[in-house]
Amino acid sequence: MTLLEKIEELLTPLANDYETEIIQITYARKTLQILLEKNDGTSPTIDECEELSKAFSATLDVENVINEKYYLEVSSAGMDRPLIKLNDYIKFKGRDIKLELKTPRNETDTRKQFKGKIEDVKDNTIQLKTTLDNTEQIITIDYNNINKAKLLITDELLRQILNTNKKKGN
Question: 106-138: b or e for each residue (b if 16 or more CB lie within 10 Å)?
Answer without folding.
Answer: eeeeeeeebebbbbebeeebbbbebeeeeeeee
